[in-house]
Amino acid sequence: MLSQRQTPTASMKIATYNINGINGRLPRLLEWLHESEPDVVCLQELKTSDATFPAEALREAGYHAAWRGQRAYNGVAILARHAEPVVTRRGLPGDVADPESRYLEAAVEGVLIACLYLPNGNPQPGPKFDYKLAWFERLITHAQGLLDSGAPVVLAGDFNVVPTDADIYATRSWLDDALLQPESRAAFARLLEQGWTDAVRRLHPTAPIYTYWDYKRNRWQRDAGLRIDHLLLSPSLAQRLKRAEVEKAVRGREGASDHAPVWIELR
């Protein structure tokens, strides 16, 4: 755990990106890393085992990595440019029997980075939705402890929650989806009420902003998107928030993930 005396570097660009299969989309990932040059990247849906994670290719691109893989499903990683992520936790507390690779925590240059891939929860109702809500409760409990520590913390990742109707295109087709259910939204709201700042909404309070466009039904072409990838900041980091953006154009490239990278810049 970081001490309260540690502070972030003068400027830091932190991104989250659901890559949707890191080995299959490695050229797109390397291309984006070269163009955008984030200092820290949280990746989700690696869909690869620990042994087949492309650490060497990322190292050649200038990034050290910590990862927790899972063959064909899930998987999270934290990349850091010119720094080695110091792993502090390799799973979300609260259920030692949970086999899914969805949470990784590491210190990078004085900031504690929590990379998460919250369960989708579909179909709902059912056991997958129950697992989603239980995982969310575990996150809320752990997040409170992180806040209580006083450390500068970023919760970054694919939360699989559309917080409000302003975070989805005008539609009724998603109303039964787990991402929009009142229980999912209430859990996200409770997380924010602890004192976390939704970085994108802090700087873009009313703009229609999406981070995910399903491959089906021409949703990308119609800009029929959802905002489900979030960066939440502890109070000390919220004071240093300078910029927050979605690199939407990355989603439109050939062979791209169905998510776009989202990043913030801290003073």
From TrEMBL:
<keyword id="KW-0378">Hydrolase</keyword>
<dbReference type="InterPro" id="IPR005135">
    <property type="entry name" value="Endo/exonuclease/phosphatase"/>
</dbReference>
<feature type="domain" description="Endonuclease/exonuclease/phosphatase">
    <location>
        <begin position="15"/>
        <end position="259"/>
    </location>
</feature>
<feature type="site" description="Transition state stabilizer">
    <location>
        <position position="160"/>
    </location>
</feature>
<feature type="binding site">
    <location>
        <position position="258"/>
    </location>
    <ligand>
        <name>Mg(2+)</name>
    </ligand>
</feature>
<dbReference type="GO" id="GO:0046872">
    <property type="term" value="F:metal ion binding"/>
</dbReference>
<feature type="binding site">
    <location>
        <position position="259"/>
    </location>
    <ligand>
        <name>Mg(2+)</name>
    </ligand>
</feature>
<feature type="site" description="Interaction with DNA substrate">
    <location>
        <position position="259"/>
    </location>
</feature>
<keyword id="KW-0479">Metal-binding</keyword>
<feature type="active site" description="Proton donor/acceptor">
    <location>
        <position position="158"/>
    </location>
</feature>
<feature type="active site" description="Proton acceptor">
    <location>
        <position position="259"/>
    </location>
</feature>
<feature type="binding site">
    <location>
        <position position="18"/>
    </location>
    <ligand>
        <name>Mg(2+)</name>
    </ligand>
</feature>
<protein>
    <submittedName>
        <fullName>Exodeoxyribonuclease III</fullName>
    </submittedName>
</protein>
<dbReference type="InterPro" id="IPR036691">
    <property type="entry name" value="Endo/exonu/phosph_ase_sf"/>
</dbReference>
<feature type="site" description="Important for catalytic activity">
    <location>
        <position position="229"/>
    </location>
</feature>
<dbReference type="GO" id="GO:0008311">
    <property type="term" value="F:double-stranded DNA 3'-5' DNA exonuclease activity"/>
</dbReference>
<dbReference type="Pfam" id="PF03372">
    <property type="entry name" value="Exo_endo_phos"/>
</dbReference>
<comment type="similarity">
    <text>Belongs to the DNA repair enzymes AP/ExoA family.</text>
</comment>
<feature type="binding site">
    <location>
        <position position="158"/>
    </location>
    <ligand>
        <name>Mg(2+)</name>
    </ligand>
</feature>
<keyword id="KW-0460">Magnesium</keyword>
<dbReference type="InterPro" id="IPR004808">
    <property type="entry name" value="AP_endonuc_1"/>
</dbReference>
<dbReference type="GO" id="GO:0006281">
    <property type="term" value="P:DNA repair"/>
</dbReference>
<dbReference type="InterPro" id="IPR020847">
    <property type="entry name" value="AP_endonuclease_F1_BS"/>
</dbReference>
<dbReference type="GO" id="GO:0004519">
    <property type="term" value="F:endonuclease activity"/>
</dbReference>
<dbReference type="GO" id="GO:0003677">
    <property type="term" value="F:DNA binding"/>
</dbReference>
<feature type="binding site">
    <location>
        <position position="160"/>
    </location>
    <ligand>
        <name>Mg(2+)</name>
    </ligand>
</feature>
<feature type="binding site">
    <location>
        <position position="45"/>
    </location>
    <ligand>
        <name>Mg(2+)</name>
    </ligand>
</feature>
<keyword id="KW-0464">Manganese</keyword>
<feature type="active site">
    <location>
        <position position="117"/>
    </location>
</feature>
<dbReference type="InterPro" id="IPR037493">
    <property type="entry name" value="ExoIII-like"/>
</dbReference>
